[in-house]
Amino acid sequence: MSAPVAIVTGGAGGMGMAIATVLLGDGFRVALFDRHGAKEAAGQLSGDVLGVAADVTDEDQVRAAIEQVSRTWGRVDALVNNAGIEPAHSLESLEPDTWQATLEVNLTGPALMIKHCIPLWRGQGGGRVVSLGSRVWLGGGWTPAYSASKAGLVGLTRVACRELGPLGVTVNVVAPSFVHTPFNAQKADPEFLEDYAGRFAEASPLGRLVEPVDVAYAVAFLVSDRARNITGEVIHVAAGSQLAPAIR
Ligand SMILES: NC(=O)c1ccc[n+]([C@@H]2O[C@H](COP(=O)([O-])OP(=O)(O)OC[C@H]3O[C@@H](n4cnc5c(N)ncnc54)[C@H](O)[C@@H]3O)[C@@H](O)[C@H]2O)c1
C-alpha cells in the first residue's frame, strides 16, 4: 500500500508543525492547511509535504483544498483538526463578533472538514479524525467563547463517531493544557505568559509543562492502527493539570 495521507489544519502553527513532523516521521504524506503561511511552512519540512492556503471557516475553500489533496494523493487517511484561535475576552466584555469568530474557527471549521472528507472515507473504507481540544472543555477557562467551542468539539466528536463508525472512521479529541506556541501571544504579553506557564507547571502532578511534541505523539497514536478501536474519546495531554482548578 502507498504511504498514508494526513491533513493538518492550522498546519503552519506551533502544534501543527510538530504534528506534521511526527506524522512525516511515521511515514505519512502530509498536507498543511492554513489561512496564513501554509506553503512557507511546508517548505520548512522534508518529505512528502503539501502546503495549501485554506480558511477552514469557508466551505468553498475547504472543499477545494480537500479536492486538491485528493487529486494529488488520491486519499485522506487522517484528518487532524488543529486550527484554533482564542481571542482575549470575558463574558462582560464579550462582542458578538468575537464569539462568532471563535466558534467558526474552532467548531464550524472541524465540522466542515469532516463533512468534505466523508466521500473519500466512504470510497477507501475508513479513516481517522483527531481534533485539538483543550483542557478547558472540562474545567472551564477564562475565555468563554473558547471554552464553549472546545466543549462543543467534544460534542461534535461524539456525534461524528456514531455517524462515521459504520464507515470505519474513528473520531477523537486530544486536549492539551498550556503549550508554548505563538497561540498564547494573542492572549497576553510575554512576561505574563512566563508567570502563567509557571502556574501550569505547578498545577501539574508531574511539575512540568506540555511540549508540542507531546501533543503530536498522542495524535500520531490515535491515527495509527494501534488505536483502531478507540473512538469518541478525549485524551488529555496536560501533564495531569486537567485535574487542577482553572488556572489564572
Ligand atoms: N498552545 C496552547 O497553549 C494550546 C493549549 C490547548 C489547546 N490548544 C489548541 O491547539 C491547536 C493549535 O494551537 P497552536 O498552539 O499550534 O496555535 P498557533 O496559533 O501556533 O497555530 C494555529 C494555526 O491555526 C491557523 N488558523 C487560525 N484560523 C484559521 C482558519 N480559519 N483556517 C485555517 N487556519 C487557521 C493559524 O494561522 C495558525 O497557523 C488549537 O486548536 C488550540 O486551540 C493550544
| Average pLDDT reading | 96
Q: Number of folding domains?
A: 1
Q: How helix-rich are the residues, as a percent range? A: 40-55%
Through-space gap between termini? 49 Å
Q: How many beta-strand elements?
A: 7
CATH topology: Rossmann fold
Beta content: 15-25%
Question: If strands are numbered along the chain, what order do they take across the biggest sheet?
Answer: 3-2-1-4-5-6-7
Give the second-level CATH assignment, the architecture: 3-Layer(aba) Sandwich
- Class, according to the CATH hierarchy? Alpha Beta
Helix and strand sequence = EHEHEHEHEHHEHHE
GO molecular function: oxidoreductase activity
Protein name: SDR family oxidoreductase
Transmembrane segments: 6-25
InterPro entries: NAD(P)-bd_dom_sf, SDR_fam
How is this structure best summarized?
The protein has 248 residues and is an alpha/beta fold.
Core attributes:
single chain; 248 residues; alpha/beta; Rossmann fold; 7-stranded parallel β-sheet; 15% strand; globular; binds nicotinamide-adenine-dinucleotide
Task: Describe the structure in your own words.
It holds the Pfam family adh_short_C2. With 248 residues, this protein is α/β, with parallel strands linked by helices. The chain is 46% helix and 15% strand. The protein has a seven-stranded parallel sheet with strand order 3-2-1-4-5-6-7, sandwiched between helices. It starts with a strand and ends in an 11-residue tail after the last strand. 45% of the residues are buried. The mean pLDDT is 96. Nicotinamide-adenine-dinucleotide (NAD) binds next to helix 1 and helix 4.
